[in-house]
């Protein structure tokens, strides 16, 4: 095989266009890393007269064997491969693109994979992109959102709704603009609260009881926009909720300094003392009392004696 690939690579230097074309065609049908590398090199060689044909052959090989391409060591080669898979909407590439998105590869490669999953447009990609909503990297979440926006099915639209809860305010706004363009209407109380927050209609956001409290507390603690955090806390003053105060005080125990600062600021707006919230009575009751070791051993022995009929 290696010798054959060497021969094909040598044929690419031929002055005979037919020889070159045959070599490219054979390379496109060879599912090997070496063939992929040869085609990638020639596709990017401006001095190579058949660069466009080499590019087409590269795309053909990638479409037929996405796993070979997306597991290559070269990030540049993988990026070009993802572009081909995206443009050609290669459904067979979805599992491999999902693997890349979940991997520890560069943020750029993972973002490209998320967008490609959206461009391919399979319903099966929705759950993969929804999973990426939990990624701590904003760029990954943004790419997942853009991928979902390209999946023109109800499942894709409903998944976009989840970004109304994102801690990145720009992603919430992006999701809002997309949903407005589709004519989406909130269906649950929580969605109505989130919609009120993103539209800046906090008077509407306070009308749904515990759903209002939960969404407004989350916005006051986590959204990366100081004005939104402040107005969310102001809205909470209209609810006169002990639950909101307890949630904010509990956040004072967070390891995240930004969360602690946000909780302190929100409690100040609510006129509440910024003291950490301890466990509730229900939480305390749920913790079993420690057993005396000797008592527990004797109790177990007594049960065993009873079972075997001894006094």
Write the layout of secondary structure elements.
Layout: H1 2-11, H2 17-28, H3 33-43, H4 51-64, H5 66-70, H6 75-88, H7 94-102, H8 107-120, H9 124-131, H10 138-149, H11 154-161, H12 169-182, H13 189-199, H14 202-205, H15 209-222, H16 226-237, H17 242-251, H18 257-270, H19 281-286, H20 293-307
Can you describe what's shown?
The protein is mostly helical and 311 residues long. The chain is built from 20 helices and no strands. The chain is elongated. The N and C termini lie far apart (83 Å). The C terminus is likely disordered.
Could you tell me the strand content as a percent range?
Answer: under 5%
Write the element-wise H/E pattern from the N-terminal end onward: HHHHHHHHHHHHHHHHHHHH
Count, helices: 20
Structural class: mainly alpha
Secondary structure: helix percent = 55-70%
Q: How far do the termini sit from each other?
A: 83 Å
Query: What overall geometry do the principal axes of the alpha carbons give?
Result: elongated
Low-confidence stretches: 280-311
According to DSSP, the number of beta strands is 0
Structure, briefly:
With 311 residues, the chain is an all-alpha fold. It has helices at 2-11, 17-28, 33-43, 51-64, 66-70, 75-88, 94-102, 107-120, 124-131, 138-149, 154-161, 169-182, 189-199, 202-205, 209-222, 226-237, 242-251, 257-270, 281-286, 293-307.
